[in-house]
């Protein structure tokens, strides 16, 4: 198995597009766990069916919303109210 340093060198040798594609494939390979948070209190990503988004994670305690896009990019939004997150998850189109 390659060390972290070796993997980092290989990843940095890729173009930005190649890194995004690799990140998206790695995210897709993760098991789709239940929507329940685990005993440690860690909030798990939820897979969404969207042409723009892959996964979403929200922490009501910290009011942080993490969104993973199909490009592999991840954005973190701060101070997101719970009702805003609920509207996103209930929307017909998660990406709009």
Describe what this molecule looks like in 3D:
The chain is of the alpha+beta class. The protein has one domain. The chain is 33% helix and 20% strand. The chain contains three helices and four strands. It has helices at 4-12, 16-29, 82-90, and strands at residues 46-47, 53-59, 64-69, 74-77. The protein has a four-stranded antiparallel sheet with strand order 1-2-3-4, with helices on one face. The longest helix has 14 residues, at 16-29. It is elongated. The relative contact order is 0.14. The mean pLDDT is 79.
Strand order, biggest sheet? 1-2-3-4
Task: Profile the largest sheet.
Answer: 4 strands, antiparallel
Portion of residues in beta strands equals 15-25%
Oligomeric category: single chain
> Which structural class should the secondary elements be placed in?
alpha+beta
Number of strands: 4
Order of helices and strands: HHEEEEH
Total number of domains: 1
Judging from the principal axes of the Cα atoms, what is the shape? elongated
Mean pLDDT: 79
Our measurement of the CA-to-CA distance between the termini, rounded to an integer number of angstroms, reads 41 Å
Q: Number of DSSP helices?
A: 3
Radius of gyration: 15 Å
Produce the secondary structure layout:
Blueprint: H1 4-12, H2 16-29, E1 46-47, E2 53-59, E3 64-69, E4 74-77, H3 82-90
Antiparallel strand pairs: 1-2, 2-3, 3-4
Task: Supply database-style keywords.
alpha+beta; 96 residues; 33% helix; four-stranded antiparallel β-sheet
Write a short abstract of this structure:
The protein is of the alpha+beta class and 96 residues long.
